[in-house]
Amino acid sequence: MSLTTFLKEKKNYTSSNLGEEVEIKLYGHFGYILLFFPTISDNPDEPETLQIIESLQPFLEKGKFRVVTVPGITYKSWFDESKTYEERSKKHYDYNNFLLEEVVPSIFSFCGGPVPIMTCGAANGAFQAANTYFRRPDLFHGTIALSGTFNIEHYSKNYFDSNCYFNSPIHYLPNLNDSYWLSFLQSKNHVYIMSGSGQGEFPENSRHLSDILNSKNIPNFLDIWGPEWDHNVETWKVMLNFLFSTKL
Predict the structure, then answer these.
(1) SS3 for 95?
(2) What gap in Å lies between CA 166 and CA 168, rounded to an integer?
(3) How open is the CA angle 154-160-166, to the nearest 5 degrees?
(4) What CA–CA distance (Å, rounded) separates 131 from 151?
């Protein structure tokens, strides 16, 4: 089957939270939703152009899940040198609202009602995927985070406000003691954290996050691959296929 066969819905509109034109795409026919964040850009077409969607074709054909792609925010927030760091932080805040107020309702509209949503991403997308899940485990079913950092200071540098804190999993998770939110995180079993150990990889970031989750009795699957696995798209394709063949 071609990718056009899997592209079932597309929504283009002006986001009220981001104040710009955005595009949301749905691929696949059946199954839960894999909400995919861009990896090396903010472009929602990236999972298709990098052939990540194509690599997931066997699972889409079987109706195991559907994929929703959304724009990212990293390059329009933390990497935008024309903005002050306060403005970059505010842009990230707006992006969180975009996800909750616009993307989730769009997914439910695509699917004809509420459906389980797992967040997913690699590199920059891993940060967004993990953070989105950990912030709202009442709305999302789990997360897949490949080769990520989970410390917003790697983006914000020396700037750190309250919004940075609440968007930095390694900062807010250790202090999370609210039984309401912990009950969601502790009762679910779909947190998958993976990294290679080759060029460009920093597996200590993944281990650090897993250690924090373990300290909070939050189930998670940590898998660190060897030095032959570099920080690149081919590694992430193999990792995703491994997860969907053996764990999900």
Answers:
(1) helix
(2) 6
(3) 90
(4) 10
| pLDDT tens by residue, the chain, 248 residues | 555 567 778 899 999 999 999 999 999 989 999 999 999 899 999 999 999 999 999 999 999 999 999 999 999 999 999 999 999 999 999 999 999 999 999 999 999 999 999 999 999 999 999 999 999 999 999 999 999 999 999 999 989 999 999 999 999 999 999 999 999 999 999 999 999 999 999 999 999 999 999 999 999 999 999 999 999 999 999 999 999 999 99
Kindly compute the dihedral angle of the four CA atoms of residues 95, 98, 103, 105, in this order, to the nearest 10 degrees. Answer: 150
Q: What pTM does this model have?
A: 0.95
Q: Tell me, what amino acid is at 64?
A: K
If phi over 0 gives left and psi between -120 and 50 gives alpha, with beta otherwise, what is residue 51? left
Sheet hosting strand 32-36, strand order edge to edge: 7-14, 21-27, 65-69, 32-36, 117-122, 142-146, 191-195, 221-224
Instruction: Please list, in sequence order, all residues whose beta carbon lies within 8 angstroms of the beta carbon of residue 44, skipping any fewer than 6 positions away.
Output: 22, 23, 24, 25, 38, 69, 70, 71, 72
